[in-house]
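Field reference: sequence -> structure
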Amino acid sequence: MKEIPYEPGSYYIFDRAYNNFKMLYRIHQIGAYFVVRAKKNLQYKTIKWKRRLPKNVLSDGTIELTG
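Structure field:
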């Protein structure tokens, strides 16, 4: 994953096995976005919930990884 030239405003999708939080934080710091399928033991805190959701979206929130 270090080989990817991350760009601000871009979206990156990773497999569940990818759990390098330092690299995910680096992606966040440059202004890019990522989606990772969470493992069952992922620890997080919900920071903000989006109230208005489009049809077929069950929930949408911003989280902070805690461990």
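Note: The first strand starts at residue 11 and ends at 14.
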